[in-house]
TrEMBL record:
<dbReference type="Pfam" id="PF01529">
    <property type="entry name" value="DHHC"/>
</dbReference>
<keyword id="KW-0812">Transmembrane</keyword>
<comment type="similarity">
    <text>Belongs to the DHHC palmitoyltransferase family.</text>
</comment>
<feature type="transmembrane region" description="Helical">
    <location>
        <begin position="151"/>
        <end position="174"/>
    </location>
</feature>
<feature type="transmembrane region" description="Helical">
    <location>
        <begin position="194"/>
        <end position="219"/>
    </location>
</feature>
<keyword id="KW-1133">Transmembrane helix</keyword>
<feature type="domain" description="Palmitoyltransferase DHHC">
    <location>
        <begin position="106"/>
        <end position="229"/>
    </location>
</feature>
<feature type="transmembrane region" description="Helical">
    <location>
        <begin position="35"/>
        <end position="55"/>
    </location>
</feature>
<dbReference type="InterPro" id="IPR039859">
    <property type="entry name" value="PFA4/ZDH16/20/ERF2-like"/>
</dbReference>
<dbReference type="GO" id="GO:0019706">
    <property type="term" value="F:protein-cysteine S-palmitoyltransferase activity"/>
</dbReference>
<keyword id="KW-0472">Membrane</keyword>
<dbReference type="GO" id="GO:0005783">
    <property type="term" value="C:endoplasmic reticulum"/>
</dbReference>
<protein>
    <recommendedName>
        <fullName>Palmitoyltransferase</fullName>
        <ecNumber>2.3.1.225</ecNumber>
    </recommendedName>
</protein>
<keyword id="KW-0012">Acyltransferase</keyword>
<dbReference type="GO" id="GO:0016020">
    <property type="term" value="C:membrane"/>
</dbReference>
<keyword id="KW-0808">Transferase</keyword>
<dbReference type="InterPro" id="IPR001594">
    <property type="entry name" value="Palmitoyltrfase_DHHC"/>
</dbReference>
Length: 382
């Protein structure tokens, strides 16, 4: 389920594993000998829990809603169009539902072609609608939503405990060593412990702050998206009060963290089902408006070309255009147009000598002057 931030997820996993590996290699042996062997055991349990929650958050479906099919989208468009009149159409595609006596607006998603259920939002990174959308976390490389929020909360909470535990153990290790051989000599002798100390010092504050913020959200039954947008008011009895809150911290925590586990709605096989279109109309039916067959378009194109050729002839010799055209002239024009339709690559077929003589005799005065172009030249120019 990783999105575009797979590299950031690898960085998160690498930092956790690298810091823990340095701790187990350079600090745990000394602390186990001089304090208690329980320190490596506690650190190992915390590390396994952190890795399990991280992988569950990253690779689990956050609650993606499948997009509407072509038939469902068409049916919904008909319903939306029927809501307006011939002269008026609703500008905003929204629906109103009542949840715990509060009116909640449902927005239409133009990408997924459906009305989003309550607390659902479209993630711009994953390009999917996610149920109970909290936020998109690049550190885990996935959206945080209805189906993986409990794992995300457990991950940041356990990671804060692991970071604080390693930070305290490293300080204890450096303090005990400095009592024997001085502070500067201890820092030179344990560079790995110094590196762990720096990493934990700069990360523990942000992780603890994030854990505290999400603890507040869990106790209030809110999401990060709703809290940032200010969707609900904290005042009881307000018109915009949170309709999903159970008015109790313990009940909200149980509803968010211990609620029923909902099944995934997406097809993990990865096959896209072809859209079933409307059946094609039989050949005997009347064609739809605007549909043209190849034959009709060819005939229409031929007529337009003949009309253009006639206009060119009339412009080249206006006196002769008033007279009645003879059969050989029409034959020459038709032959020229046919050769033009074949790609302008072939010249018109020559006429026999007798017909050519009759044609020249019949045209008489209509023969072009040296300053005029022949008829087929005008057709080729068009």
């Amino acid at each position: 389920m990783l999105a575009r931030h797979g590299g950031v997820f690898a960085l998160t996993l690498g930092l956790v594993l690298a810091t823990s590996a340095l701790f187990f290699a350079f600090d745990c042996p000394f602390l186990a000998r001089h304090l208690t062997p329980a320190i490596p055991a506690i650190a190992a349990l915390l590390l396994l829990f952190v890795l399990s929650c991280l992988l569950q958050t990253s690779f689990r479906d956050p609650g993606i809603l499948p997009r509407a099919t072509a038939a469902e989208a068409a049916d919904l468009e008909k319903r939306i169009d029927s809501m307006g009149t011939s002269t008026y159409r609703p500008p905003a595609r929204t629906m109103e539902v009542v949840i715990n006596k509060y009116v909640v607006k449902l927005k239409y998603c133009y990408t997924c072609k459906m009305f989003r259920p309550p607390r659902t939002s479209h993630c711009s990174v994953c390009d999917n609608c996610v149920e109970r959308f909290d936020h998109h976390c690049p550190w885990v490389g996935n959206c945080v939503g209805k189906r993986n929020y409990r794992y995300f909360y457990a991950f940041i909470l356990s990671l804060s405990f692991l970071t604080a535990f390693i930070f305290a153990c490293v300080i204890t290790h450096i303090t005990l060593r400095s009592q024997r051989q001085g502070f500067l000599d201890t820092l030179k002798a344990t560079p790995a412990s110094v590196l762990e100390l720096v990493i934990c010092f700069f990360s523990v504050w942000s992780i603890l702050g994030l854990s505290g913020f999400h603890t507040y959200l869990v106790a209030s039954n809110l999401t990060t998206n709703e809290d940032i947008k200010g969707s609900w008011s904290n005042k009881r009895g307000s018109e915009f009060a949170n309709p999903y809150s159970h008015k109790s911290i313990l009940t909200n925590c149980c509803a968010v963290l211990c609620g029923p586990f909902h099944p995934s709605l997406i097809d993990r096989r990865g096959f896209i089902q072809p859209d079933v279109g409307t059946p094609s109309s039989p050949k005997s039916e009347v064609p739809s408006f605007g549909a043209k067959s190849d034959t009709s378009m060819y005939v229409q194109g031929t007529k337009e070309l003949l009309r253009t050729a006639a206009l060119c002839l009339s412009w080249s010799n206006p006196r002769e255009a008033k007279r009645k055209r003879t059969i050989p002239e029409t034959t020459a024009i038709t032959t020229t147009c046919a050769s033009t339709l074949q790609g302008y690559a072939t010249a018109p077929a020559p006429l026999p000598r007798q017909e050519r003589g009759e044609s020249c005799h019949a045209q008489g005065e209509a023969s072009p002057s040296p300053h005029q172009e022949p008829a087929h030249s005008a057709v080729l120019w068009v």
